[in-house]
Specification:
By secondary structure, the chain is an alpha+beta fold. The protein contains three helices and seven strands. The longest helix is centred in the middle third of the chain and has 14 residues. It is globular, with a radius of gyration of 16 Å. About 6% of the residues have low confidence.
């Protein structure tokens, strides 16, 4: 959550605050470093709304930081229901710790991403994904 707050503060963007949120934070790259915060919040009526903000800096000494275009969207009813179902399956109340060992170095353009799922009266569930290779992460990305 702190990474989302920090990048949004730098970009003068509001940090959403809702009982149920799914947050995706990524930072990395090769010829440029991209840092972004994608957050979808569940409204009291069950609908989901998202915002995505970020910035990019080419890998040159003293290069300027360029903000990415802010995106706001609402998940459709079907997409929202799929996200609710995915959260209940992927984030059970009591989940055993998972350990994994990377199998070799990541590709040069790799951006590690962290997903945090915030729900009322439950601890935050955190897991890591590889950019564009995880279907759960794809559910909360802004539409193209």
């Amino acid at each position: 959550v702190d990474d989302h707050r920090a990048i949004r503060k730098i970009l003068n963007e509001r940090m959403p605050d809702a009982p149920t949120m799914v947050m995706l934070y990524g930072k990395g790259g090769h010829l440029a470093t991209n840092e972004y915060s994608i957050i979808v919040v569940r409204n009291t009526d069950g609908s989901w709304q998202g915002t995505a903000v970020g910035r990019s800096q080419v890998s040159i000494v003293d290069a300027p930081v360029t903000p990415m275009k802010k995106v706001e969207w609402e998940l459709g009813t079907d997409e929202g229901q799929r996200l609710d179902e995915a959260i209940s399956r992927r984030c059970p109340s009591k989940r055993p710790p998972k350990t994994s060992t990377p199998s070799g170095p990541p590709p040069l353009d790799f951006i590690p991403e962290r997903i945090d799922v915030v729900r009322p009266n439950k601890s935050v569930t955190t897991f890591y994904v590889a950019v564009y290779r995880d279907t759960f992460a794809a559910m909360i990305r802004p539409p193209k």
